[in-house]
Amino acid sequence: MLSSLAKLHLAKLPQLRCIWKGPTHIINLQSLTNVKVSECKSLIYLFTLSVAQSLVQLKSLKVSDCESLKHLIVTEEGDNDKEEEILLESHHAVVVLPNLAKLSIGKLPQLRCIWNGPSYHLNLPSLIDVKVGECKSLIYLFTLSVAQSLIQLKSLEVSDCESLKHFIMTEEGDNDKEEEILPESHHATVVLPNLAKLSIKKLPQLRCIWNGPSYHLNLPSLTDVEVRECKSLTYLFTLSYVWSLVRLKSLNIYGCESLEHLVITEEGDSDEISSEHDLQIHSPFLSKLESLKINSCERLEHIFPISFARVLVQLERFKVKNAPQLKQVFYLDNGNEENVVAGDGKETVVIKLPKLKVLRLDGLASMISFCPENFHSSWPALEDFTIDKCSMSFVTEVVSKVRDLQENLRILRIGSSNQLYDTLLSGLKDGFFKNLEELSINRCGVKVLFPLEDGEQHLFSLPNLKTLELGYLPELEGLCSKSPTLVLSLENLTTLDLWHCDRLRNIFSPSLAQNLSQLQRLSIYECEELEEIIVEEDEENQILFFQNLLEIDVVRCPKIRRLFAITVAPCLQKLERIHVYENSELEEVFGDKDVADVMDHKEIMLPQLDWLCLPQLPSLSKLCPVGYHFIFPSLSRLLVINGCPKMSTRFSVGEDRCVHAKAKPLKMGNQDKIADFPSEPSIDIKCFGFDQIKQSLPPYIENDDQSIKQKEEEINTET
Fold it and tell me: pTM, whole model, 2 decimals?
């Protein structure tokens, strides 16, 4: 019966308790390839033993959101109308699912084990992909014999299983009491020859990835390992387990608060490995490792034994963040360095990481050194270096390396260290760091970024610098000294980000702004004393600024009164985005201190602007001075102007899809005549896409300009 059924999909059947009721030996699902079951809250099991034995073509099994499901496969013994009393199958039963390639189970809170029986009789020779998630009662994944059958398994992902303690367990004891299952024999061997990806997340009870003498586990194809938020995990690998990781390329560890070691030596390791030195020389373990990331592991004190250093010849990216107890990256195991130091061990040994390009060290308050005493690390290929919130003793060690790295260095991020900043500044004065493309300085006591002492003449040249980030610099007063003898060359800078620079009153002099001809993105956040972006000087009107600027963001700068002078606006022909938010004193986006006419041509087009966002600006009265007319032919993505009760600029949309903006005259002093313009409610515009803009804005009337001009002339004549 049902021998031709190929696909079975069951969903949202709240009363379904079993898929088949009655004698199941007459059911043959020999053609079934795909099974998907979801949201069947009364279902207790999927298949009986005899039905499971007929699933010879099954390729994909996905089960989710079945809150009562306890078993995937059970026996036919007993009354099937009382599934709670179903007994386990005979020890002689065999189930082979020869074509099952994908297994996905999720949100099954009652499931205690994937296979409820002596699982050495289950064979899954074609299983490639396993995903298990949100099974809060699950204690283990596989028994030993099932694990030994997974010869094709390539990907294993397990997440949010709060009771899971083991991945692989033995069949000893009563399998209906998984808590009592004992670890496998010391002679057991598990080889997963094709497993390439292992991802485990949010398994709070998991204490070790492999619960047994791990030198019997072999993972020769494993390339990617991700471990996240396993708070009871104390170590990742044993020494002999690491020996099998000959293809591992990426190791990512996050939020494992109890993790103390990446690698430990277990009793029994010495049975196969005479010394770490032999392991290092004769095994290619970890020789393919390219990326290592460790984040938020509060108890981690060391990462690798020093003998591992020479094996990491392919390591390109190494990132460690928020490891407050970390003392060293490489350490001497048992204080014995004879395995890695030739001779008497007193000479300094260079540990070279020849391909390391990215090194980021952040939040290492207890860091003593990169290597132990008598060892020196070398990073000849380093291009991207970050150091922030590290101990002073370690920073001192790093200072001596920074200038040696300057030729290859492309990205440099310095945080919480005046000492490193001084090293950078000294190098710049000597003509070093010419190849820097990104520079970030945070949490330093810097007053002037590029200072010049009296009588000095210097060219600070960073010809390749594209990104400059300055954050949490409470003493910063300017980017460079105001001296005619100082030349700051940043001709290729495209991105400038500033945040929490609380003493900064202005950012650019006109000459420096003119120098930034390639600037594309300018972001300014929470600079409390900032009054203006470009210092206003007499010659400002004749200078071109920011002709390649694409985006500008100014957020929570309470003292800034205008974004740019009106004379800057015609230069911004490539500007695409304006985002100005919560600047309490901002009065104008484009304006001038002098109310007199400063430009003869008062129609200004910003042809590329498609995003204009001006929310929560209580003092904003005008986008531009009265008499000016802004045209935005591309404004179609976002137009938001709200929380601006004083806004007088009128917005309208033309038949040619251009958005127009003009400021209305305001009442000034006792000139009550100007109040003849009818009062309007405060503007509240929130438009996402051109269709909303067209619906929300009034149509543009070209003749309206003439009537307003006549009104202004009448007022001027009378006054």
Answer: 0.85
